[in-house]
Amino acid sequence: MDKEIINIAYCTDSNYIEHVGVSITSIILNNLNNNIQFHVFLYDVSLEEQTKLQQICPSITLYQIPKNELNKYSENQNKKIKHINQSMYIRLSVPRLLQGIVDKFIYLDADTLCFTDISKILDTNLNSVVCAVTHDSLNKQNMLNQNKRLGLTTENYFNSGFLYINIDNWMKFDTENKSNKILLSFEQDNLIYPDQDALNIVLQNQVTYIDPKWNYLFTWMKDNQKETFFYNKESLPYIIHFTGARKIWYQEHTGLAQNVYNFYKHFTPWANTPLKSYKHKMRINDYRIYAKKSIKNKKIFNGLKYFFIYISLKIKKQS
Q1: pLDDT of 83
Q2: Where are the domains of the chain?
């Protein structure tokens, strides 16, 4: 008897397609005995890069996002939300675009790596909910703060980088249209995490919470854990989500996580593509974090350099 198919979807543009390839590879290498189908929704991706992605395995299906799916979110039409990356919206439309193709699927952000057999997700009962989710924080007070900000009636708040979706229930609840209505009507300041906030408002009583190991945020780990997490099989998360701007695929962010990322990258068509630098993306707070880390690692000169840059930028911003 054939194993039940596990369907997994991603959304990406040209900036993240390489990372989707690495994420997919991490799933494949940890699930050699499972029947997994990948559905990757693309926009602004060259044919060359698309071909690379499909070289990873034959169970990857690519979907070109229709122009009308993007046009309805054009900056000219919705100036309130011009800061939002279009991929945030596209994931809201994936259940509709997959309707009739699959019944349920896992949606994953590109900045995720898999570390184990994920077939046990099939034991999750989605009959009475729209999707299974994981908490956005391990700190209850942090979630209460998010709830207060959004006016939620529940004490929970989930991270949208992992969603195990029941497509029929998603469609019946009109999730996409309800979420878009919120995204287009809320003030920018209210929606700090736009699509995630909207989904939390719409689905606050329509989800089931599962083990955070399914979407374990890297920021939850202490510094020493970030350098040892891979070596303890018992505590190793199923999927680690590398949230935040300082991604593991930037040259400067060395450590165990980057080593693991490079290991999986080695098995993709991007194996010989060098890691990019984070320098051109540096924000004011990044300099403070770099200063603290450098001094902790006894790189005093670098630490002082980053600290003075941080102070000067703060003063400039306030003046």
Answers
A1: 38
A2: 6-216, 282-319
Give the burial class of 280: count Cβ atoms within 10 A of its Cβ; 0-12 exposed, 13-18 middle, 19 or more buried. exposed
- Residue carrying the six token digits 């004490």: 155
Sheet holding 36-42, edge to edge: 60-64, 36-42, 6-12, 104-108, 158-166, 131-135, 207-209
pLDDT at 2: 67
Cα angle at 134 between 131 and 137, to 5 degrees? 145
Helix spans in 83-139 (H): 86-98
Burial class (CB in 10 A: 0-12, 13-18, 19+), 111: buried
Tokens linked to 259: 């080593």
Fold for domain 6-216?
Spore Coat Polysaccharide Biosynthesis Protein SpsA; Chain A (3.90.550)
Q: Give me the mean pLDDT over the 37-45 stretch.
A: 94
Average pLDDT over every residue of 204-232: 95
Q: Are 98 and 167 in contact (CB under 8 A)?
A: yes
Q: Are 91 and 195 in contact (CB under 8 A)?
A: yes
